[in-house]
């Protein structure tokens, strides 16, 4: 049966059609599902299990215990029992450590995503399914509108987000919460209601309390989701144009810096030029968030002038060099120091994946080379001073340090006598310069 009851449980064919539109799965798919214990995520876990079993694949349910309520551990164990009874492999991931006094939901969300992604990587699973649905999408639009978001923000959540080692998929974005509830009931599955969903401390809970009043003014979930679809369509086109512009104007260097020809950006439609510049800064600066639009606009105007002498923005130094711009990490902002043991890997400064070979000796620290370290490299060999790297790039390279000082700099092929050059540092920015276009979701035609 290919047509499902629009108010009934989600059928196997209906769900399979959504997964087919997402694409990119192995012949025998392995999928992780984030499970909170609510009807949405449990319903998704059951749908994915059925879908994967039909393809000789398997599913791993991941339950995050944030430790924010006294009963959270017991609830996680209860959800684990339900999953085990269904034959779904599962793991409980705990958010340990001190919790922030403010912004707790944002911090919990970030911790959840990190824990889920780390476990997927450990398990070699490429796809992480999340149960966000049309009502979540509508709430996201309202929250971002209230914060003054532009087109990108109003596009809300994407059905596919590819980044890092795991691909996040949201196959249910065009379906209402009620469909997940009746799906759980059809499976005979209980669920847990999270009391924070009704806590007026949180913006989403306040929006849910105002749902009827908003709907009376025309701001119901279908209309808001339609707004997200239109904004996503515009964002998709803008990102495609930005990617083409970046391909023409930018050279990416493995030491984590960019050479930018500003002429194509200044000649392009202003929105595309601004987006390209912002993406260059976001991909180079190592910051968790892109620079503010107003700051990028000011920088863009300065670059268009005749007397641009350089600026810092978003953790970057932007410097003119022979008709081009060098965009490099700002040295003063590179403060992270991470321990690295033989056979291990760390993600340093949100820019580099640094690996140390097994059997390479003892542990080292990964930290910035800095001005002092650069002088050590220069003094080690007469040719090192001629390495053609811009000044800020030299100082912000990842270097290995131990109890005896500077041990190695992988990008420069440098190692201290007696210390084997057994490490690699691969450019792996948290924000890609130009990734896949933002996908569009519609309750009429599905995912485009």
From TrEMBL:
It catalyses: cytidine(34) in tRNA(Ile2) + L-lysine + ATP = lysidine(34) in tRNA(Ile2) + AMP + diphosphate + H(+). InterPro entries: Rossmann-like_a/b/a_fold, TilS/TtcA_N, tRNA_Ile_lys_synt, tRNA_Ile_lys_synt_N. GO terms for molecular function: tRNA(Ile)-lysidine synthase activity. Keywords: ATP-binding, Cytoplasm, Ligase, Nucleotide-binding, tRNA processing. It is an enzyme of class 6 (ligase). ATP binds at residues 36-41. Residues 31-209 form the tRNA(Ile)-lysidine/2-thiocytidine synthase N-terminal domain. Its EC number is 6.3.4.19. It holds the Pfam family ATP_bind_3. It is found in: Cytoplasm. NCBIfam families: lysidine_TilS_N. Ligates lysine onto the cytidine present at position 34 of the AUA codon-specific tRNA(Ile) that contains the anticodon CAU, in an ATP-dependent manner. Cytidine is converted to lysidine, thus changing the amino acid specificity of the tRNA from methionine to isoleucine. Belongs to the tRNA(Ile)-lysidine synthase family. The N-terminal region contains the highly conserved SGGXDS motif, predicted to be a P-loop motif involved in ATP binding. This is tRNA(Ile)-lysidine synthase. The lineage of its organism: Bacteria, Pseudomonadati, Pseudomonadota, Alphaproteobacteria, Rhodospirillales.
